[in-house]
Amino acid sequence: MSNSTRTQTAIVVGGGIGGLAAALALTRQGIAVQLLEQASHIGEIGAGIQLGPNAFAALDALGVGQTARGRAVFTDHIIMMDAVDAQEVVRIDTGEAFRQRFGGPYAVIHRADIHLSILEAVQRDPLIQFHTSTQITGLRQDGAQVEVQDAQGRRYRADAVLGCDGVKSVIRDHLVGDAARVTGHVVYRAVVERDNMPEELRINAPVLWAGPRCHLVHYPLRGGQQYNLVVTFHSREQEEWGVRDGSKEEVLSYFQGVHPRPHQMLDRPTSWRRWATADREPVERWGEGRATLLGDAAHPMTQYMAQGACMALEDAATLGQAVKACDGDLPAAFRLYESVRIPRSARVVWSTREMGRIYHAQGVERQVRNSLWKDKTQEQFYDRLQWLYGWKVENCLA
C-alpha cells in the first residue's frame, strides 16, 4: 500500500466483465471501489464466449477461476472447416496435452455465466459499492484526486478512475479523444436449444465454417443443453456501431453458395441479435495522471480470435499486479500497467483483423488459406499459439 494509512479509493466506470474484474483486482490490493454502471441493473447481454488458458490464468489470479470452471464447457478441439466444400482445414486438440502446455483449459461459456461468476465475488466484497442508472458525462483531475459527473449532475470523487465503459467509452473520449473504427462487418448471435441443433453438428468444440466474406461459428453452452450460433458477414450497407434485432432474411441473403451442412443452421434460431462491429486503432497511451482504461474501452477488437473478454481479464489481473509492484502509487501503477498492456493488446487487435481476412478468403486466397496448416503437428500449432495462450500472471509485468 501507499505511505498513508488512509484507504485509497477508485472509481470504476462500467459494470461489464472488465469493470467487475477490475474492481475485484483493486480491492484485492486494499483499494475501495465505487462501481458506476449506466444500466438500471448489473448484467450482461449476448450469448456465448470462448475462454483460452490465458483467461483462466487471469480468473485464477482474481480468485474466481473455480467458479467459472463450474459453469463452463471444456472443449475437445478447436476446428476450422471450409464452408464451401465442408472439408476440414485445421483441428487443434485442446485436451490434456494442450492443458499441460499452457497450464489451463480451453472452454466455452455463456456470457451471462462468466459475468455472474465474477459478480458473485464482487457482491461479497465489502470494499465495493454499486451505483446503477449512473451515466457518466464528464471527468476532471486536479492532481490529488479525480472527479466524474453523471447525467443527473451527481459528482463522485476518488483517488483514481478506470474507464471500463466499452467501445463507446465516455472516459476514453476525455482521455484519448479518438474515433471508433466501424468495420463494416456484421455479427448475428443466437442461442439454439440442443433438440433444435442438427445432431451431426452437436460437436464439443468451437467449430468455425470459413466462407467467402462470411463465416459461421457454433459450440455448446450450459452442459450441452444449448448451442451458441454466431454468423458474420461483410455488410452491403453503410454501418454504424450498434445492436438491434436482426432478421433471418438478411442472414440468408449473405450465405449463398455455402455448403448445405453449415447452411442448415441458419434456419434454427427463433430470434437473432445483430451487432454492427467496431474496433479502434491502437494508441500509445490510454490515460494520464490518475486515470486509465481497461477492456473494450482500451482496446476494442473484433471477434475473430475470441479474445475480447480474455484481454479484459488479463488487463484486470495485470492492473492488480502493477498496483502491488508500485506499492499503491496509483499513477505509477497505471503507467506500468499501460506499458505492458498496450503492446500486447495491440498485437491481438492487429492479429484479429488479419484472422478476419483469413476466415473470409475467397478465390485463390481461399486455396492458400486451406494449405496454411496442412500436415502441421499439434506441437507446431501449440508453438504458434504460445505467445497468446502462454500468458501468466506471474510474468505479466515482464
UniProtKB/TrEMBL annotation:
Q: Which reaction does it catalyse?
A: 3-hydroxybenzoate + NADH + O2 + H(+) = 2,5-dihydroxybenzoate + NAD(+) + H2O
- Database matches in PANTHER family: GERANYLGERANYL DIPHOSPHATE REDUCTASE (PTHR13789:SF318), MONOOXYGENASE (PTHR13789)
The Swiss-Prot or TrEMBL record lists the needed cofactor(s) as: FAD
The family line of this record is: Belongs to the 3-hydroxybenzoate 6-hydroxylase family.
Asked if Transferase is a keyword of the record, the answer is: no
What are the FAD-binding domain coordinates in residue numbering? 10-324
User: Gene3D superfamilies in the record, alphabetically?
Assistant: FAD/NAD(P)-binding domain
InterPro entries (UniProt xref): FAD-bd, FAD-dep_Monooxygenase_BioMet, FAD/NAD-bd_sf
Keywords, in A-Z order: Aromatic hydrocarbons catabolism, FAD, Flavoprotein, Monooxygenase, NAD, Oxidoreductase
An example of a GO molecular function for this protein is: 3-hydroxybenzoate 6-monooxygenase activity
The name on file for this protein is 3-hydroxybenzoate 6-hydroxylase
Task: Give the highest taxon in the source lineage.
Answer: Bacteria
Its EC number(s): 1.14.13.24
